[in-house]
């Protein structure tokens, strides 16, 4: 994984985590680092689910449903995290 890929994963993970935090009530108490980790792991989960549903076109760098499924994956992880905390 190159330096640019790592940076891109951090940026996308942060925004996915922010969107997931906004969608789940009471989730605004998690910190900056956990938001990034949540977004990255949610992106991995969403990407895995997206790959099971349909494969991206050969040579494409972006899966059409990937961003949406990344948010769904992050929301699911955030709900699980929230349930484990209470």
**CA-based shape:** globular
Radius of gyration, CA atoms, in whole angstroms:
13 Å
Spans where pLDDT lies below 50 across 5 or more residues? none
Strand content: under 5%
Q: Compute the separation of the termini in Å.
A: 36 Å
Report the major sheet.
none
Quaternary structure of the protein: single chain
**How much helicity do the residues have?**
over 70%
Number of helices: 3
In N-to-C order, the SSE pattern is HHH
Number of DSSP strands?
Answer: 0
Structural class assignment: mainly alpha
Mean of residue pLDDT values: 78
Task: Please provide a written account of the structure.
- By secondary structure, this protein is mainly alpha-helical.
- The chain has a domain at 30-55 and 63-86.
- The chain contains three helices and no strands.
- The chain has helices at residues 3-23, 32-53, 66-85.
- The longest helix has 22 residues, at 32-53.
- The N and C termini lie far apart (36 Å).
